[in-house]
Amino acid sequence: MTHRIAQRSLAVAVLLVAACRSTPRTGPAAAERPPAYAIVPNPTTIEIAPGRDSFLVTPRTPVVVDADASSEVEAVGTYAAQLIASRFGATAQRLAAGTTQPDSSIALRLDPTRANLGAEGYELTVRRTQVQIVAAQPAGLFYGVQTMRQLLPPSVEHIASYTRRLVMPAAHVVDVPRFEWRGGMLDVARHFLPAQDVKRFIDLYALYKLNRLHLHLADDQGWRIEIKSWPNLTAVSGNTAIGDAPAGFYTQEQYADIVAYARSRYITVVPEIDMPGHINAALVAYPDLRCNRTAPELFTRVGGPPNTLCVTRDSIYNFVSDVIREISSAAPAPYYHIGGDEVAGLTKEQYRGFVERTQSIVDRIGPRMVGWGEIATANISPRAIVQHWNRDSSEMHAQRGGKLILSPGPHAYLDMKYDSVTVLGLRWAGLIDLHTAYDWNPTALLPGVAESSILGLEAPLWAETLVTRQDYEYMAFPRLAAIAELAWSAPGRTGWEDFRRRIGAQGARLAALGVNFARVPGVPWSW
Ligand code: ACM
Fold this sequence. Notes:
With 527 residues, this protein is of the alpha/beta class. Helices cover 32% and strands 17% of the residues. The strands form 4 sheets. The chain has an 8-stranded parallel barrel, surrounded by 6 helices. A 7-stranded mixed β-sheet has the order 1-9-6-7-5-3-4. A two-stranded antiparallel sheet has the order 2-8. The two termini are 31 Å apart.
């Protein structure tokens, strides 16, 4: 497809839309329609030309990769083949050496010379005869597939829609992300999400090109990951949660399986064990971690007691070290989150001493340390990453040359209620409707923190009031897509009015996926 042809088709489409608009309507105000094609996050550049240049997809449409493609590229091809064929046995096909892409196929190709696409960018070209996705790295191919997916009708998402002929409009997309860290956090400690529900979230993160899954694995109310050298953590606190809700924990094998599944979707898991506060579940299991060596009461309500690790006792660092070492060897990861938020009952010196000593343990084991904003008050290295969430000390870390992740409570906390009648959720950071989640500027958030200090954005989903997967989904969607767009799309490509309409077009897709998303008002939902 040349640009000329694309533009001509686009002009025809615009005329058609204009003609529809001019038809007078009577009766109650006609429902606003979302656009027919809408990509979230908004790509850097996109031209769409519905009409006779469309590409027809059937369950037999081959997805092809080059003869010498790596197994990783082949795996992305197989992911795409399974998406369009709606069956798990579908695989990518390797082209025979020296042959060119056949007609009516979808080709995925790495081109390392396309350095302008970076590690995650891609170019997608849809013509009547062929579809091509080109990227410099495999992650880019994966994101190109996600955009292709959103150009296909929502029925592509439903496993039971077999006999289908799906039409993809002619299109040309060149797209690179704004931020390196595009994350979501699941709190599986206050309530527990079984591994298959975490994997479902991973798949939904991928749809919106998120690349970090921060797992909050322990808190006052429960401990969710097996630590073999400290078995009571899960034997005692793996079975508690807020109220009488069902609880559980991940064995190290299950955790490694989640990490591998996430990796197959280009998502890096960031494990967090919150310390030295938010630790009651561990103190119940091992009272010696407390200064008075007596077990605190089990805490299974919303909120938390002020109990902490006995940070001035050397032996607790054996515990800290065993936990970090076991989690890091169950599934080696580039990041490890130490928590560090909301610590009551320690002096500033005691708190800073804990953070610094824990940093040296994390550094020795290898991953890059992440912690909530409060850790910036300690003498941490610029290699550490600080996660801003509230009125905290994150700016101090930017001043020392370190990087920040932005999770501002009043915009990015997905556990806040949408409005005053939302049944689920809390409201301490305010009510967060979709507009509030979307309409903020990461570079204007913290005085003196420039874009170069911002590694990216993350939307935490705390689970004090969330019990089932459907509860988690209701609070996450559509607001998670808003944060995903701010993290991916360049400032000139974001804007509330346009997003409002594009997210409306995602309604039928989320519905086809069975996502219990909040049908928030003011959006022209399509379902
Ligand atoms: C937090 O919300 N306490 C990080």
